[in-house]
Design goal:
There is one protein chain. The chain is built from 15 helices and eleven strands. It has 477 residues and is of the alpha+beta class. Among the domains are: 93 residues, Tumour Suppressor Smad4 (Sandwich); 87 residues, no CATH class. It has a six-stranded antiparallel sheet with strand order 2-1-11-10-7-8. Helix 4 packs antiparallel against helix 5, helix 5 runs antiparallel to helix 6 and helix 6 packs antiparallel against helix 7.
């Protein structure tokens, strides 16, 4: 059984979960509910199986962070990992420490209720009370819980299997930090590198083992003069810095490939299975080949590139992409662009207008009629999504509300509409929703800049948002 500790809004809660799927989000469908800004209705899943925990982000959300790096695809979480979603953090811990002993009772202790699979045991709302040891007279329940927590910590040392890295880090890092500040206070000047340096190297090494690159760098940065360190610590610092660089590159490749995984599944594999059946039509094959070309351009080193090349060879002889598109080609491609979620009206209008520039005279009327149809559909879609964004904001679904406006800015294909959506987005800054959750727009936009470049490119170039960001710079903190 795995133990999770959630820290959010200055509060801390812990629970255990057995095998199953634990959904995380801010909506009614989420089993683990978070109230932090930037959390979607269902933001991610934790898959618990055979003693392992996997993080599985939901498509279309701002990716969670693990160790300072974005995670867009499925990732195995070792014990000690910390997942950040919005402003909430969830740490993963092995539940190997023996439980605190119950108070003696004259009769046999009643059995505790078995934990519900993948649900917080502390939040069971089934109406069945778990058996608890009696609370001593004059002592409040919160104090009793605190004692149980303290006993559990003490019993870590009794675990015959030995201390785990997460426990060592939990115990020794605070001690190291306290020692650092005590020494600094009594010396009355900058920390003595010969004393503080090894402590910082220790903390950097532990942070690195947990994949926390930013924390490792921050620990190293506190060493004022490396030349005062012993030779072995200087060598270890060089090794740690190299591993930080290598780790970040690995995470970037993994994040990029995770985005490629989603494109491959939705835009290629699902498209082929649903559209390229027994009856193969030219417009459908043309869209499929264009999507393959886009995949090859964006993810040239993707591990499933061999599958992509096989499909390209299979269908390439059916359509020549160098020949001018027919109206039937354009009509189907526009449909494919606007049945997806999100609808890409920006590309649909651009595609249609480019085709009209050289369209045969007999087909121009069809092209103009297609434009009129697109305008009506987009107008209705835009107003509906604006209302949905406001509705989600009032419900406290901050991440989903912001996402809808980001979609409108990115994909509406109309400057006036994009400006209107951007102006609405700016109003969100400082909004206090349910549970006294305050929206910090700069933090939300920082997530888009780090992990959603397609959205960010359009958002930072928007006139309204660009003016706002001059007064509210989006930093990398």
């Amino acid at each position: 059984m795995t133990r999770f500790v959630v820290e959010e809004g200055g509060k801390r809660r812990a629970f255990k979960a057995s095998e199953g799927v634990l959904t995380i989000g801010s909506g009614e469908r989420a089993m683990l509910k978070l109230a932090s800004p930037g959390v979607a209705d269902v933001h991610a899943e934790l898959v618990l199986s055979a003693g392992t925990v996997k993080l599985r982000p939901k498509p279309g959300v701002v990716p969670p962070m693990v160790g300072g790096a974005s995670v867009a695809g499925e990732m195995l979480l070792p014990s000690g990992s910390v997942v950040t979603i919005g402003e909430a953090s969830i740490s993963v811990q092995d539940d190997d420490a023996p439980a605190a002993a119950a108070a003696p009772a004259p009769a046999a202790a009643p059995k505790q209720a078995a934990p519900v699979a993948a649900k917080p045991s502390a939040a069971a709302g089934t109406g069945k009370a778990k058996a608890k040891a009696p609370i001593p007279a004059g002592k409040k329940a919160p104090e009793r819980e605190k004692e149980a927590w303290q006993r559990s910590n003490k019993e870590i040392f009794k675990d015959k299997s030995g201390l785990k890295p997460a426990h060592v880090l939990m115990i020794l890092v605070p001690v190291a930090i306290l020692a650092f500040f005590v020494i600094n206070k009594f010396i009355g000047k900058g920390p003595d590198t010969a004393i503080a340096g090894p402590q910082q190297v220790f903390m950097a090494r532990r942070a690195l083992e947990g994949g926390m690159w930013d924390q490792a760098e921050a620990a190293i940065a506190l060493i004022e003069d490396r030349s005062k360190l012993a030779t072995e610590y200087q060598a270890e610092l060089i090794e740690i810095e190299q591993k930080i660089v290598e780790g970040r590159k690995t995470m970037e490749v993994a994040a990029a490939n995770a985005a490629g995984d989603q494109y491959l599944q939705v835009m290629l594999k699902n498209f082929e299975s649903s559209r390229l059946g027994a009856k193969v039509e030219r417009p459908v094959v043309r869209v499929f080949l264009k999507r393959i070309a886009e995949f090859e351009k964006r993810w040239p080193n993707h591990p499933e590139m061999e599958w992509v090349h096989r499909k390209k060879e299979r269908y390439a002889g059916m359509v020549d992409l160098n020949k001018p598109a027919t109206f039937e080609d354009i009509d189907f491609e526009v449909k494919a662009l606007t049945w997806d979620n999100p609808r890409n009206y920006r590309e649909a209008f651009s595609l249609t207008n480019r085709w009209l520039e050289t369209a045969p005279t007999d087909d121009r009327g069809k092209g103009l009629a297609l434009l009129d149809k697109l305008i009506k559909e987009r107008d209705a879609w835009f107003e509906d999504r604006m209302l949905e964004a406001r509705h989600q904001l009032k419900k406290g679904q901050i991440g989903q509300a912001i996402q809808w406006l980001a979609i409108l800015i990115t994909y509406s294909g109309d400057n006036a509409m994009a400006d209107k959506a951007a102006a609405e987005l700016i109003k969100f800054d400082g909004y206090e929703g349910p549970g006294n959750v305050v929206v910090h727009l700069d933090r939300e936009l920082r997530g888009y800049r780090r992990t959603l470049p397609d959205y960010w490119k359009q958002m930072e170039s928007n006139r309204v948002l660009a003016e706002w960001m001059k007064e509210h710079p989006i930093d990398d903190k």
